[in-house]
Amino acid sequence: MVFKHALRNALNPMITLFGYTLGALVSGSFIAEIIFSWPGLGRITLDAILTKDQYLVMGSVLMASTVLVMGNLIADLLLAFADPRIRFDAA
User: Fold this and answer.
1) What is the pLDDT of residue 91?
2) What is the DSSP string of 24-80?
3) For residue 40, what pLDDT is reported?
4) Distance (Å, rounded) from C-alpha 74 to C-alpha 55?
5) Which end of the chain is more exposed for a tag (fewer CB within 10 A), N or C?
6) What radius of gyration do the chain's Cα atoms show?
7) Is 40 within 8 Å of 33 (Cβ atoms)?
8) What are phi and psi of 12, to 5 degrees?
9) CA dihedral sign, ordered 45, 46, 50, 51
């Protein structure tokens, strides 16, 4: 009985944090790749910034922002599915 009511109220903030966490994973992987010298998007982006390769920097920023937007979209869709009070309202 408690799980039914408590889970329903606690689910909304958890879903919202899930959406933001996907964007944080990309930025966190950039930092981990640079610190541990792992090959990946973070290392390539840092090298592109240092060599002033603007197209590669734009591509990596576009990819990171796309992951953030998709994470927020997934979180919004999950919120609309989990909570019937949240619906699309056309003005």
Assistant:
1) 55
2) HHHHHHHHHHHHHT--SHHHHHHHHHHTT-HHHHHHHHHHHHHHHHHHHHHHHHHHH
3) 83
4) 28
5) C
6) 18
7) yes
8) -60, -50
9) negative
